[in-house]
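Can you give me the bound-state structure? Components:
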Amino acid sequence: MNAFETVLYDKLPSIALVTLNRPRALNAINIRMRDELWQVIGAVRDDPDVQVVIFRGAGDRAFSAGADITEFGTAPSPVIARQVRWQRDLWGTLASFSKPLIAAIQGYALGAGLELAMCCDIRIASDDSRLGLPETTLGMIPAAGGTQTMPRLIPPAMAAQLCITGEMVAARDALGIGLLNRVVPRDELFPTARKIAEKIIANDQRAVRTAKEAVRRGLDLPLVEGLELERRLRSRLGK
Ligand code: COA
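Here's the bound-state model for the whole set.
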């Protein structure tokens, strides 16, 4: 599994640890990384030993500074087509992933980096992190799901502000608006993420995945239909 150039994949007991690994480019997500993340995610989905996935960034400066801007506007059209395909499949797959996903963020989480983290169920960040969606400052919009996932996570007015201004927020402010679950000193980041993963692993995994599905799918439904979904999922669980 570690034959990848841009992603490190490690297995801890019941945990898949996925490290974005281009530290010299602040772990910017290039086409190759999307390609490799797609392969890793497929393997993690099919591996019965993996109950929880933790994403993190290599080096000490960034989780990820977003899409690789050096690839913007330079790729020939077949490459762009592949880029679009990977982008859609990866973010769609992550957003509907059945196993719990945790993002352990240190430093910058920008653009597609933050969007990847927003596909996760839980975001823990070091207290020196900075988060943002700078796409509009580059004449684009967030297109790895960010315009849709962000207003489902934080108050819509704050989501609009972050999407439209492209400004970054510090970890404490991101915690205040609900974009992060927890902020910890840098040296506690990974141990905290792991502790949370272990708490999840100690639970019944069918119940965990069913609860995740209820929360995720319910966000797109009116309350009455969400309650109906909850009833159906509960009976599917047989309890
Ligand atoms: N794509 C490709 N390379 C990137 C990158 C990205 N998104 N973000 C950073 N890098 C590279 C830089 O080009 C630089 O490479 P170099 O050392 O070969 O010159 C290296 O990472 C370090 O970045 P640098 O800009 O020197 O660090 P900084 O501390 O001055 O600034 C940021 C940090 C995050 C503010 C700045 O790198 C930045 O704004 N990056 C782009 C963020 C962005 O717009 N992402 C979304 C794209 S939609």
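A couple of observations. The beta strands are 7-12, 15-20, 52-57, 62-64, 101-105, 108-110, 122-126, 130-132, 168-170, 182-184. The chain has two domains: 7-200, 204-236.
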